[in-house]
Amino acid sequence: MNLTFRQLTIFEAVARHLSFTKAAEELHLTQPAVSMQIKQLEQATGVPLFELLGKRVYLTEAGQELQRYSRSITLLLAEAEQVFEEMRGLKRGRLNITVASTANYFVPRLWAAFRKRHPDVSVSLDVTNRAGLIRALGENQADLVIMGMPPEGLDLVAEGFMPNPLVVIAPPSHPLATATQVPLEWLQGEAFLMREQGSGTRSLMERVFAEKGLTPTTPIEMSGTEAIKQGVEAGLGLALLSVHTLEMELALKRLVVLNVEGFPVLREWYIVHRSGKRLSTVAQAFHDFILKETEELVHVPQV
Ligand code: PGA
Fold it and tell me: Residue 198: helix, strand or coil by DSSP?
């Protein structure tokens, strides 16, 4: 059967309006052009599709059949168009990710690998502490969030994708640096640097210290991981940090991990989004990429 999609579109309009004139108006065609296309369609199918009784147009039985088929064809084409639109979305889409400041030590690497596969995708990467992450989730500002410990009370989908060991660090010159085993009570007299209020690392540190019955002497508060590392290097005190933030300092031996009893404390990194959120094609692709490829791309420093 030799018919065109254009003829089907015209047929569909005439069948819907049961009027050649209205179909012509809708499609911005002349009425003879519409009649001509329908005539050709009737030649192609070999059966009459409309009949004219008085001044009214009716669908023949064959016309009703064709109307059913043309509806299915139109729906399928619309579906295909949507698929292509989504594919274009992955090609040129944009992603909003919010990550914990501690996760920012490896997320750019993952993003770079993802971008190699999808070079036209762009990202807005917001880096903040745990309190900021919870706000971003609550206000639905981020497509995806990467964090240490998903909060309770929000309706979230959280999937763990990599271990996140937390360790106690010191400068190499510290007296405990060479000890093969540091009992917890030895930390009792030590000064500790701690992150700002709202940091997940800080609340973990407070919890761990409370559980183990430790009260750090003269805790010094500093905002941000970089400030903490500089402070520890300068000999201001010890600190508890995720090993992911320490790759360079450990390699350069500017900082050391103490062999403290009960450490490392093992947590996990999570990729999180609000349940019910419709992830865009790009967000879904990056989400799947993180779950599948992180192990290959990010090395967890052994401590
Ligand atoms: P933060 O990140 O210490 O920068 O808040 C860690 C986390 O999400 O737990």
Answer: coil
Read off the pLDDT of residues 77-98 as tens digits, 9 standing for 90 and up.
877 877 777 767 777 778 899 9
Nearest Cα residue to atom 6 of ligand 1: 200
| Ligand 1 center to 165 CA (angstroms) | 13
Angle 254-256-262 from CA coordinates, rounded to 5°: 160
Kindly state the tokens that stand for 95: 């992603």
Cα-to-centroid distance, 132 and ligand 1 (Å): 9
Ligand 1 centre to CA of 99 (Å) is: 9
Indicate if the pLDDT at residue 1 is higher than 90.
Answer: no
- Between CA 178 and CA 159 the distance in angstroms is 37
3-class SS at 253? Answer: coil
Distance 100 CA to ligand 1 centre (A): 5
Residue 87 confidence (pLDDT):
67
Question: Nearest Cα to 95, choosing from 116, 118, 120, 122?
Answer: 122
Check residues 81 and 8 and name the one with the higher pLDDT. 8
Please give the radius of gyration of the chain, using alpha carbons only, rounded to the nearest integer: 32
Name the nearest CA neighbour of 226 among 97, 124, 104.
104
Using CB distances shorter than 6 Å, the residues near ligand 1 are 100-102, 129-130, 147-149, 195, 199-201
